[in-house]
Design brief:
Elements: H1 2-13, E1 26-31, E2 36-40, H2 53-63, E3 69-75, H3 86-95, E4 102-108, E5 111-116, H4 117-120
Bound molecules: tetrahydrodeoxyuridine.
Tetrahydrodeoxyuridine binds at residues 18, 21, 23, 25, 41, 43, 50, 52-54, 84-85, 88.
């Protein structure tokens, strides 16, 4: 599954709409239905309306009826490692099966870092904190 996620994230990156930053990002996410949903960053002339690749992929999976992220891969800069932005970390936390989910930060098919949500978003605020 890891290799498939990495391959699909690399492919999704090519679909990026990023005429302002020229910074392509692709994400591939395995959800509880066993399928992988992908996404790219989609920029806008009104810069703040930009959507990151991770959120595009999450909204893709959730809009098909999913609510649980099991594993994911992300690729941005091919000369370095691109980690999810703060907003995306929060949105990943909303749907992650647990803090242990694996996140692959990909440079290319043979070069990636394996991390977890807990590692990149310690002390997260999520639904578990509400209604106490
Ligand atoms: N970007 C992502 O797609 N994901 C991230 O986690 C970091 C930033 C995109 C947004 C924008 O289109 C470009 O990268 C430069 O910030």
């Amino acid at each position: 599954m890891k290799n498939e996620l990495i391959k699909l994230a690399i492919e999704a990156r090519e679909k990026a709409y990023c005429p302002y930053s020229n910074f392509k990002v692709g994400a591939a996410i395995l959800f509880e239905d066993g399928k992988i949903y992908t996404g790219c960053n989609i920029e806008n002339a009104s810069y703040g309306a930009t959507n990151c690749a991770e959120r595009t992929a999450i909204f893709n999976g959730v809009s098909k009826g999913n609510k649980i992220i099991k594993e994911m891969a992300l690729i941005g800069d091919i000369n370095g490692y691109t980690y999810p932005c703060g907003i995306c970390r929060q949105v990943i936390a909303e749907f992650a099966e647990s803090g242990d989910i694996k996140i692959y930060i990909v440079k290319n098919e043979n070069d990636y870092i394996e991390t977890t949500l807990d590692e990149i978003l310690p002390g997260s605020f999520t639904k578990k904190d509400l209604n106490k």
